[in-house]
Amino acid sequence: MARVVLMTGVSRYLGGLYARRLSADPSIERILAVDVVPPPHPIGRAEFVRADIRNPMIGRIIAQAGVDTVVHMNVIATPKDTGGRATQKEINVIGTMQLLAACQKAESVQRLVVKSTAGIYGSSSRDPAVFTEDMSPKVMPRTGWGKDSVEVEGYVRGFSRRRPDVEISMLRFANVVGHGIHTALTDYFSLPVIPVPLGYDARFQLVHESDVTEAMVRATTGPSVGIVNVAGDGFVTLLQCAAILRRPIMPVPVQAAGAVGGLIRQTGMADFSADQIAFLAFGRGIDTTRMRTVLGLEPTHSTRAAFEDFASRLRRSVPGADEVGDAVTGAAAGTIAAISRVFERIQS
């Protein structure tokens, strides 16, 4: 049973939710919350420790406190939150390496809990309907958070071979949405006009921020679970999400999606990568049997309910957005054939 917990990423939104939720568990004697900047939100009874997991000092903190459970939540999803892709990769990959090296040397560590992502499965036209935990991606993530998470999971597997006495729980979450969280996907759906891949209507799963917190707490305080997919029940499609938001859509040929994404990224409104564009075109499905049978989690929000909670906090982009959205979407639909003919001529 966890007594002294060290968590990373407390200054991020989900880290704050987790720290407050874990603080309510009387069986936890002490919580050390590590990050490079002070958290802008309450963290319950967790003790904030200003430290960088890329620095070997993290090992001294673990040893001196007698930490028995390490919870790694500091794999960063969006480069704009860290100042660029190079910094994001350094924090995600180098930071994880240093943290695991510290855990390997600390005899007190008995459990490691890692927040991972279903993004490690990638997105392609060759994917199965759903991925189980023992499946490999058909097309490996090539950029960004997905690629970093593949490397992080590789380091965790290496750590488990070197320290077979340490229990490992690694949760692969579907895209997280909710009333307060900001991610690349929520930024995308917050755009005044939503660019969608022409000819595609991807289906995917989501998970609510509150269910993420509950899953992480269960992995911390309950039995070890190994690798578990976590998502809300059911699926939504890209066009269903746009309809729920009452946002106009702009069909974009897949060949031009990268250029459009680059322009949007330059404005700072949303972050786009090649893997995110593939996700918007092909979607992703994950099997959640182990979530129920091993982790013992029944999500409080379905995929649709989670998205509707996110949608409820968005303000209308402009007055009369419903009417404008209907008009723009209708006009865009009428240009699909013309755009397709143009790109057919370019390719021929």
From TrEMBL:
Transmembrane intervals: none
All copies of domain NAD-dependent epimerase/dehydratase, residue ranges: 5-230
Pfam family membership, one: Epimerase
Matching InterPro entries: Epimerase_deHydtase (IPR001509), Lipid_A_modif_metabolic_enz (IPR050177), NAD(P)-bd_dom_sf (IPR036291)
Residue runs in coiled coils: none
Protein name, UniProt field: Epimerase
Organism: Intrasporangium chromatireducens Q5-1
